Amino acid sequence: MTDTRATDQPELRLQADELHAYVCAIWERAGSSAREARLVADHLVAANLAGHDSHGVGMIPRYADSLHDNELKLNRHAEIIRDAGAVLTVDGGKGFGQVAGFEAMELGVERAKRHGICAVGLRGAHHLGRIGHWGEQCAAAGMASFHFVNVAGDPLVAPFGGADRRFGTNPFCAAYPRDGKPPFVLDFATSAIAYGKTRVAYNKGKTVPADCLIDAEGRPTIEPKVMHETPFGALLPFAAHKGYGLAVLCELFGGALTGGLTTHAATLETTNAIVNGMLSIIIDPQAFDAHDGQAQAEAFVAWAKASPLAAGAGQVLMPGEPELATQAARRAQGIPIDPATWQQISDAALELGMTTGEIGRYSESARRSA
Ligand SMILES: NC(=O)c1ccc[n+]([C@@H]2O[C@H](COP(=O)([O-])OP(=O)(O)OC[C@H]3O[C@@H](n4cnc5c(N)ncnc54)[C@H](O)[C@@H]3O)[C@@H](O)[C@H]2O)c1
């Protein structure tokens, strides 16, 4: 494996709209429709803005590899396989999850407005990226939602009590809409850290926090290379048996209930594809007899935030607030990208059909803004 890590070079930086234009250009050159390229760019740049670089533009090389493997399919749409009114089974056809997820949420929101609630089982989507994006889409339409996601056939995480990788980083998300304010969005991998965060640390030549990884012998380690160089180790679930239990339910709801695939010997992925299944429960708050719901929510938030601060803590935050703060800072100062990640994106852009001249213009701009 080539070591593309570049720890001694300066960070690059791009304004969100310029990075968005670069991502659109990359996928349009690869053959995506303008709408598809825009939805992918919307999602990846929003993940970077939120501070989740693990699910931002750094995913482009992996998507390019998956396209090269003929696994990721361009210009596919979410297809309703079974319509049971408030329960929809939707297939992503291995198209961009950024498109299938968007379209599945549009369908689910429309049904939830009609029936009060809708369960959308989306299966066979290529990487759905930052799941908070889907919670935010539902919240923007006034809906509360929660989402259980599995990563079919891509084991990275050891079961509680186990010593090798058996299932994916299976994220969970729940979003609560607020009148005239950004929603509360809880969104995390059920592994102690997201796999992409080991990639970011590896690219930067940094270690990860303790209690997140084991090596190939099942021993604790802080070296992210155990996830990127053989012999492979594994991520640990967060919060011991509790995080493990939630990961199991993400696998069952996201992979089995949706009619998709779970991870086992017969489904192990041998390509660069990342295939997500997602069960989304979308609820219209108007359907409840809860006229005081927003006031009760805000009263709780104020109450929780009034807690005296623990030693060393700066403030009490609600889920979603760290992302909003990072978003504001990055909109003002631009999005930082480490040089190794930038190089990997540029290599992928070239492979996908952009010219060195076009790539060079974005690279020059990113160096100038740093
Ligand atoms: N598509 C996939 O297959 C896949 C797989 C795994 C993870 N992911 C994505 O990876 C991303 C990163 O996951 P992660 O596990 O690294 O997230 P994380 O550990 O950074 O946790 C993020 C969540 O915790 C909240 N939070 C953080 N600090 C807080 C504080 N001080 N007070 C209150 N709330 C706080 C955030 O608002 C957010 O909801 C997520 O967006 C997830 O959806 C996707």
Provide an overview of this structure:
- The protein has 370 residues and is α+β, with helices and mostly antiparallel strands.
- The protein has a single domain (12-287, 324-369), classed as Ribosomal Protein S8, Chain: A, domain 1 (2-Layer Sandwich), CATH 3.30.1370.
- Helix content is 40%, strand content 17%.
- The protein contains 11 helices and 12 strands.
- The strands form 3 sheets. The protein has a 7-stranded mixed sheet, sandwiched between helices. Strands 9-8-10 form a 3-stranded antiparallel sheet, with no helix packed on it. Strands 1-12 form a two-stranded antiparallel sheet.
- A hairpin with a 5-residue loop joins strand 8 (213-214) and strand 9.
- Helix 3 (60-68) packs parallel to helix 10.
- The chain is globular and about 60 Å long.
- The relative contact order is 0.18.
- Residues 52, 54-55, 127-132, 149, 151, 169, 171, 185-189, 193-194, 197, 276, 317, 319-320, 322-323 line the site of nicotinamide-adenine-dinucleotide.
